[in-house]
């Protein structure tokens, strides 16, 4: 699997996880019951996905086409 494919997959995963995090936050605001464990886990996974996108993006940008 190429780095570009991995970047695209991680970006798609980033959109899904961001939607889920926003949905959980808004549900918590509406009901005044936050599930902090799910919010924390989602935030940590989001941070990891962002890190992976940056890492693979740097690798792709450092490649030189001769």
Explain what the structure shows.
- This protein is 85% helix and 0% strand.
- With 66 residues, it is mainly α.
> Could you name the ranges where pLDDT drops below 50 across 5 or more consecutive residues?
none
Count of extended strands: 0
What gap, in angstroms, lies between the N and C termini?
22 Å
Q: Sum up the overall morphology in one term.
A: elongated
Mean pLDDT: 92
Structural class: mainly alpha
Biggest beta sheet attributes: none
Q: Approximately what portion of the residues adopt beta-strand conformation?
A: under 5%
Task: Spell the H/E element sequence.
Answer: HH
Work out the helix count: 2
Radius of gyration: 16 Å
- How helical, in percent, are the residues? over 70%
Name its key features.
single chain, 66 residues, mainly alpha, 85% helix
Summarize this, please?
With 66 residues, this protein is mainly α. It contains two helices and no strands.
Reconstruct the topology from this structure.
Layout: H1 3-31, H2 36-62
Helix pairs in contact: 1-2
